[in-house]
Amino acid sequence: MIRLATISLLAVCPHSADGLSLSPQTPSAAAPLMARQPGTGSSVTLPTQAGAWVRPDQGRRITEETIFDYMDGAGELYLAYRFDHLDVYLYPAPTPSLGEIRVELYWMRSTDDAFGLLSVDWGGDAIDLQERGVIRQDAVPAVPPHHALYGGGLLRFCSGHLYGRVMASRESPASREQVLAIARSIVKGRPANGRPPAVLSTLPGRLGERFVLRPDRTCFFRSHYVLNSVHYVAPDDILGLNPTVDAVVGEYRAPQGGGPVRLIAIAYHTPDAAAAGLAAFLKSYLPGGGTQAAGRPVPSAARGEGGWFGWAAQDRHLAIVLGAPREEEAKAMAGAALAALIRQ
User: Fold this and answer.
1) At which of 158, 187, 216 does a domain end?
2) What letter would DSSP give residue 125?
3) Do residues 45 and 187 lie in contact, with contact meaning Cβ atoms separated by under 8 Å?
4) Are residues 183 and 122 in the same domain?
5) How far apart (Å, rounded) are the C-alpha atoms in residues 108 and 128?
6) pLDDT for residue 240 is more than 50
7) Same domain assignment for residues 37 and 183
8) Hey, is 103 helix, strand or coil?
9) Is residue 203 located within the same domain as residue 318?
10) What is the structure's pLDDT at 10?
């Protein structure tokens, strides 16, 4: 499995929040900076000062053309989720020993894209930026109910079309307090996020009789780059993924131990795209280039590395199970997953 070790990705889906919890020496958020996403009417407010950290008036705008200059290759992840632009703001401290606080505001083209960035990695402590309780009424069982995560000086969150990262270069109780204060200022007054991507509701809580879904391993994706970061499938895009696709990968484990079973559920834009994705997958995974799969009824299964894999497709939907211990289980799991995907 390949994990994204070069960047720390999480996000939260906060909405409105209480006022900033700035330290006593902070002169309030006077003359806040208003950052706006063109064409959406969405804006955020950044305080001028957060504790000892004070930002300059101007930030830095990063576009598709300059994102690789800013993050040296890791921009692929954001482009995979329909990235619009990034605004970066620095809060230097008066003494170098305190480090700096960096704010990154990733404006995406949909709320699903912002959520997808969060779902790449669910690690960290849950943070409630609204201060209304971490559990969300619109949560779905396939993913954790919280959307704000903090760890190692980094807070990751999403709010509507916005995916944000606020990070302290040197973590301390004081920097943590101000990282959270800045994030609460950003999400204050913004609309609530709504439900996560609809395809997430297609993941069953169990596969077969023994395997239970792990919500903290569920990822919403649109590209093979993201899929491979969660579970490596192939070096190339054999599933025909693109920005029009809604896809999710879930991990299932048996309570008694053993290796994981993974389910990939994809809703394509057209039936032809789904058929092409399945054909390319079978060509890559089956001996003989997949010709032996011709004429097989679906759901079906074959033996591969790490166990059996199963597949089932109908109309514009495709379900693939990887790592099942037995052939009949792989078939049954793929069929059940496809039925849930069609009901979406």
Assistant:
1) 187
2) E
3) no
4) yes
5) 22
6) yes
7) yes
8) strand
9) yes
10) 32
Q: Please determine, for residue 9, whether its predicted confidence score (pLDDT) is greater than 50.
A: no
The arithmetic mean of pLDDT across residues 265-287, rounded, is 92
Q: Is the peptide bond before 24 cis (omega within 30 degrees of 0)?
A: no
Domain of residue 209: give its range: 198-342
Given a cut of 80, is residue 91 above it in pLDDT?
A: yes
Q: Is the pLDDT of residue 73 over 60?
A: yes
Percent of the chain with pLDDT over 90: 64
CA 329 – CA 331 distance, rounded (Å): 5
19's tokens? 């006022």
Chain mean position to CA 73: 18
The residue with tokens 């809060």 is 91
- Is there a domain that residue 16 lies in? no
More confident residue, 330 or 35: 330
How far apart CA 320 and CA 302 sit, in angstroms, is 11
Averaged pLDDT of the chain: 83
What is each CA distance from 37 to 17, 103, 115, 162, 264, in whole angstroms? 20, 15, 17, 9, 33
Write a three-state SS string for 202-255.
Answer: HCCCEECCCEEEEEEEEEEECCHHHHHHHCCCCCCCCCCCCCCCEEEEEEEECC
Residues 166 and 256 in one domain: no
Residue 131 binned pLDDT confidence (cut-offs 50, 70, 90): low
- Give every CB contact of residue 194 below 8 A, 6+ residues apart in sequence: 111, 138
- Residue 301 in contact with residue 323, Cβ under 8 Å? no
Q: Are residues 183 and 69 in the same domain?
A: yes
Q: Which residues of 303-335 are buried (b: 16+ CB within 10 A; e: fewer)?
A: eeeebbbbbbbeebbbbbbbbbbebebbbbbbb
Same domain, 178 and 202: no
Domain boundary among 118, 153, 187: 187
* CATH number for the domain harbouring residue 81: 3.40.1000
Q: Is residue 318 part of a domain?
A: yes
pLDDT at 42 over 60: no
pLDDT-based confidence at residue 83 (cuts at 50, 70, 90):
very high
